[in-house]
Structures are given as C-alpha cells and as structure tokens.
Amino acid sequence: MRFLFLILAAVLPLLAAEQTMEKGAVVVVPVEGAVSQAQFYFLRRVLKNAESAGAAALILNMDTPGGELKSTEQIVQMLMKSPVPVYTYVNTNAGSAGALIALGTKKIFMAPVSAIGAAAPVVSSGEEIPTTMNAKIVSYYSGYFRSVAARNGYHPELVDGFMNLDKEVKVENEVINPKGALLTLSAQEAVKVVGDRPLLASAIAQDIDEVCKDLGLNPGAVVRVQPSGFEILAQWITLLAPLLLLGGIIGAYIEFKSPGFGVAGILSAICFLLFFAGHYVAGLTGLEVVAVFSIGLLLVLAEVLFFPGVVLVAAVGAALMVGALFFAMVDFYPAQPLDFSYQMLSRPMLNLSLAIIASAFSIALLARFLPDLPVFRRLFLSAQSSAGPSIPAAAATGHSPAISVGDTGTARTILRPSGKAAFGDALVDVMTQGQFIEAGAPVRILSISGDAVVVEHA
C-alpha cells in the first residue's frame, strides 16, 4: 500500500499543476522547440481547458524552427475548430511548421526582431526529400494550407512562397518572392501593406501585453501555461493504452481471486492510474471520467463485500467502469458539438476491444492454471496464516481423522477462490480451482497437498 501511495503522490501533483483558468482569461501558451506529437497533445489539453473555462482568447507565444508536418496539420485542424479565438505572437521565430500553424490562427503579431516562413518539407534528418516525393508533398500541403490561409483572411499566395521553390509569388501584382527561393518575411516585411491589407502580420508588438491591447483584451487576465514533465510520457501512455488496460484488468482479476490485498492489486491500480493520468495530460479526458470509473469500482466492490449475489449492482458498476475507460480515449472538446464519427470513435473502440479480448483470453488461462501456480499458493497460505483460528490441513490430516479426500462439508465463507469450510467439527482453510462458491453451499474435497485443501461444489 505504501508503494501505491508513493505513486499517487508523484502523479496527482502533475494533474493538479495546471494553472486555474477563469472565464474571460487570456491564455498564453508557448510553442517552443520542434513541433511534434507531444506539442499537439499539450496544445490540445490547454485548448480544452480554455474552452471549458470560457476563455476570451488563446495566444500562441511562438519560437520554433519547425517540425513534423502531420503534427502541424493536426494542430491547425484543432485550432480552426475551436470557438475560442486563437492568435499568434511570433517571438522570435516561426520557421517552417511554425509559419503554417500561424496561418491557422485569426491574427499574427510579430516581435520587433522576428521572422516567419521557409516551410519547405524535409526529412527528419534535415536532408531534402527525393524529387518526386517532394513534389507530391508540396502539392498536397500547399493546397491544404492555401485553403487555411484564405479562410483566416491571409494572402493564400504566401503559402506557395513558403513551401515551393518552383513558383514566383505575386500578391496584388507585386512580386513578393522570386522563383527559386523560399519566402521568409521579417517583422517589417510581414506588416507591409499590399493592396488594402497587411501582407501577413497585423502589427509589430513589443510583448504579449501589447498584443492584448491591440486585440482589445485585458492584459491583467493573462494566464501563462507551461508543459509539464509528464507531457512526453503521456504520448507513450496513449499509445500503450491497450497494454495498460490489459494489465489493469488482469491484475484486478488476480487480486479478486487472491485473499488480502497484494502485488496484483497494486499493479492493477498503477495501470489504471497511469492510463487515466496519461490521457488527462494528453488532453483526451477530464477528471469527471475518473470519478465515473471510481463510482463503478465502488459499486462492484459493494456487491462483492456487502451484497453478494446482487448481480444488478455489479453490472451497473462494470458498465460505468467500461464506459469511463472508453470515453477517456475519445477526443471531444467541451465547447464544441459532439460528433460521434467513425474517425473519433475508431481508436477508442479498437483499444478497448483489444484489451477486452486479450483479457478474456488471459483470464481463461489463469482460471485454469492459477490455483496450481506456486506463487498463488504462497499468496494463499500467507494470507491464511493470519486470517483466524481455522485448522490447517496438515494438522487436520496429521493428528485427526476429521478430513480426507472425498469428504463433504459446508462453505462457511464465500470461496473466491479461497476461504473457510467446515467438515464436521473442523473449520479448514480451503481453495477452489478458480470458481466462486457461495457461503453455505456444499463442498467436496478434491485434494490435500501440504497445507492446501482444494475443494469443489458438491
């Protein structure tokens, strides 16, 4: 138990570390370093919290050389769907993927010394992509981000300048970038008026407070958030969700079958704790899902401990637990309409199905072989040694003719699979081969080996 409390003490502060947002807050979130899946998870969590709180705006405080195109696309899709207006402050670099993310926000502001652009795709090592593949990537993503730019009121031609070496870029008949070069704009170039509007950025701002004033927002309502040390781990936890669910379910089964509270129960608790903690930090779930899971668990425990045989209580509890596990993996946003599409539900369904199928197979094997495993026998005997004044099998067989193989008696406690049974005047520690037997049911001794008495329903 002490180990479990240490795990809780280490993880729960990470869940509570997010600074409180209030209605009307201006949330400033850093976009620093390489754009990656971890950055997407972080932004998703912050954006969902901002939506729930009713934030007035979200400002990306950007200083990035670029990063993954796929993660960039995910971030842009997320930002464009949000009812919370999102703005970019380039401080001081919006290179490559950063420039494309900025196009997905409502307005762009530049620090006095800053730059934006140069978004040609390259491989992760920094080398150029082979010609044919590069042409396909540029063709698709330039088309995609032109539509993003047009939707947010930017000149879509700039995307070709950022991504495509083979195009001359003209805006309002003015050549902005010649063929054979990638477009990178300084702060002063980005705010230059071409036609009836700035080329790209709305204004040059000294800091976030000045951006707020330009947007008519309250600088005093600024809430700055930072990624936690758990963010990258959260990415792996979401990928390993089926294994964590499998470990949690199997651990709970073994603990349920074993007397007392031991290693299996601790491992099960850790698996479920990591599952929910990882999905919370990854922005996929809130604490309300953890509460629903806990209520379900309490109902199952209530049936086992206080209302044995009342299947409805355990069934409702199990349904709540499964529902909580499923919705912890569903990517929905608090302030956006629910869209239960196949794209949204497919991954949670796959993860949960894999975990349930693997658990059913594993539990079937454990039910068959668990009572014969030496480790389980040791757990059984260790727990029984302090369980009360019952007669061990060795004493009963060595000094009394009270019990022998084939004798019948009565279960005095629920056997799941261990407990106590009476054979005449002898109260004996017994265990089944995996099945549950209610208190008061007749039992028959199958075998006696040392201190282990194995029984079945008579």
Draw up the topology in text:
Blueprint (H helix, E strand, L loop, with lengths): L1 H15 L9 E7 L4 H17 L3 E8 L4 H13 L4 E10 L1 H7 L4 E3 L4 E3 L13 H21 L5 H7 L5 E3 L2 E4 L6 E3 H4 L2 E2 L2 E2 L4 E2 L3 H8 L6 E3 L6 H9 L1 H17 L5 H19 L5 H19 L5 H17 L14 H28 L4 H11 L8 H7 L8 E4 L6 E6 L2 E6 L10 E8 L2 E6 L1
Parallel strand pairs: 1-2, 1-12, 2-3, 3-4, 3-5, 4-11
Antiparallel strand pairs: 5-8, 6-7, 9-10, 13-14, 13-16, 14-15, 16-17
Helix pairs in contact: 1-11, 2-3, 2-9, 3-4, 5-6, 9-11, 10-11, 10-14, 12-13
How would you concisely characterize the structure shown here?
The chain has 458 residues and is an alpha/beta fold. It is built from 16 helices and 17 strands.
Shape: elongated
CATH architectural name of the largest domain: Alpha-Beta Complex
Would you give the CATH topology of the largest domain?
2-enoyl-CoA Hydratase, Chain A, domain 1
- Rounded radius of gyration (Å): 31 Å
Terminal-residue CA separation: 37 Å
Count of domains: 3
Provide mean pLDDT, rounded.
79
Helical residue percent? 40-55%
Oligomer: single chain
Instruction: Give the CATH level 1 class of the largest domain.
Output: Alpha Beta
Q: Major sheet, described briefly?
A: 8 strands, mixed
Structural class: alpha/beta
Low-confidence sequence ranges: 1-17, 380-401
Question: Helical element count?
Answer: 16
